[in-house]
Amino acid sequence: QVQLLGSGGGLVQTGGSLRLSCAASGGTLSRYIMAWFRQGPGKEREFLAAMSETGERTYYADFVKGRFTISRDNTKNTVYLQMNSLKPEDSAVYFCAASADYFPPSQYDYWGQGTQVTVSS
What we know:
With 121 residues, this protein is mostly beta strands. 0% of the residues lie in helices and 50% in strands. It contains no helices and 11 strands. The strands form 2 sheets. Strands 2, 4, 5, 6, 9, 10 and 11 form a 7-stranded mixed sheet that branches. Strands 1-3-8-7 form a 4-stranded antiparallel sheet, with no helix packed on it. Strand 4 (33-39) and strand 5 (46-51) form a beta hairpin. The radius of gyration is 13 Å and the shape is globular. The N and C termini lie far apart (40 Å).
């Protein structure tokens, strides 16, 4: 059973940056496609970015292209989301997820607990 632990969220001003981390335990991260999602207050969960098992392929939601970057370090069993030029509308709980599906995945097998990001105006 893979467990995912997200961290790195916090309060940041508009235009600032944050790097989220998601550490995996109980399994080998390199076996999974990794992705980031977010859910704002009163909103549905939305996909942000995904990266293939060895990092050679990425897929981004259009609204984060150029601002967010997904990366992974399989030697550390960790995936990252670098977020730049943050806006108040980026405020949400951010989740990492792991998938054993084909790339890009349509279903996810494991989810992290979420980390809160708040962007002040």
